[in-house]
Design goal:
Blueprint: H1 3-13, E1 23-25, H2 31-42, E2 48-52, E3 68-72, E4 78-91, H3 97-103, H4 110-127, E5 137-145
Amino acid sequence: MDVETFWQHFKTAHPEITTTHHDTYAFGSTDESADLLAHLVKIGQKTATTSALDLYEVDESLPFVGEYNVILDAHDQPVCVTQTKVTEVVSFDQVTQEHAYHEGEDDRTLASWRREHRAFFANEYREAGQTFNEQIPCFCEVFERVD
């Protein structure tokens, strides 16, 4: 099913939702991670995410509280809908154990979160011609699966 049809089915099932705005994206940088992370969101284990604030495009809007998101798998197929509940900007070295746990990945510890995100962000920064350090601003988002 395409994203717009999926979104319209969601809106029909939830007539109290009057917004027409939603963001659409897949998590991760590989097909394998996109499928795994979409699955973790669908089963309710992944309820948070983190991105590098510096790497948002100038014309790319930041997630905002109340925003709906259609989560995609590796084949750009919609898996579920989330709603953003909390956003905050903190430096990489100040991301908390609680946030790491809510990201739902690996063993859900801060140590594994830092290891995996350090490698992920270092690669993203390198591809952007920039240098990663542990004080980069991170955009932390907490969401809830709503369908």
